[in-house]
Amino acid sequence: MEIVGIWGADTCGCSFFEAVDETTRECRFIIRDEAIILVGLANLQRLTSTLPVSTWQSTYPVATDKLCPAHEALGRVLLRYNTVLAENRRKNICQSIVQNARPLVTAEQYGVAWRFLGDRSLEINATSMGLTTQQKNNVQAQADIQFGPGKVVLI
Ligand SMILES: [Zn+2]
C-alpha cells in the first residue's frame, strides 16, 4: 500500500507530493490530483499532522507542493522533481567526498560550506572546512569525474 507524503529538499524551496510504498519505503513523484485519488482530499488536508516519516516536512499549514524561484519555470512535473533530487544528491555525495578527503570535517561544517549558485552549480567552500590545497584539488577532481566539470566548484 502507498501513503502520501510531502518531500522538501534542503537545497532549495521546492517541495513535492510523493507516494511512498509502506513496505519498501520507495518514493515516487505524484501530482496533487493523484495524491487526492490515493488518500482523498480530506486526508490530504490533514497530511501535515499525520506525516509518519520524520524526514518529511511537517510545517506546511496547508498540504501543498511549492515551487522555488530557481525551478518554478519547470512547473509541477517530474522533471522538476528529478532536477531537485539530483541537486540534493550532488550536495550529499560531495559531503562524502569532502569527509573522505578530510575526516575531521563535521556535517555541521559542511552544512554551512555549500550553496547553489544562479546556474545551479554547487559551490563548496573548502577553505572554511580546513582542507589543504591538495585535499581541495582532490575533491574537485572527484566531483568533476562524478558530475562533470563545472557542476561543483570548490573555493
Ligand atoms: Zn527548487
Note the gap between the termini: 46 Å
The structural domain count equals 2
Helix content estimate: 25-40%
Order of helices and strands: EEEHHHHHEEHE
Number of E strands: 6
Low-confidence segments, given as residue ranges, are 48-62
Q: How many whole angstroms does the radius of gyration measure? A: 18 Å
Name the average pLDDT.
87
Per DSSP, the total helix count is 6
Strand fraction equals 15-25%
Structural class: alpha+beta
How do the strands of the widest beta sheet line up side by side?
Answer: 1-2-3
**Distinct small-molecule ligands in the complex:** zinc ion
What is the approximate shape? elongated
Query: Biggest β-sheet: count, sense, barrel?
Result: 3 strands, antiparallel
Summarize the structure.
This protein is an alpha+beta fold and 155 residues long. Helices cover 39% and strands 17% of the residues. About 10% of the residues have low confidence.
Looking at this protein, list some descriptive labels:
155 residues; alpha+beta; three-stranded mixed sheet; 6 helices; 39% helix; binds zinc ion
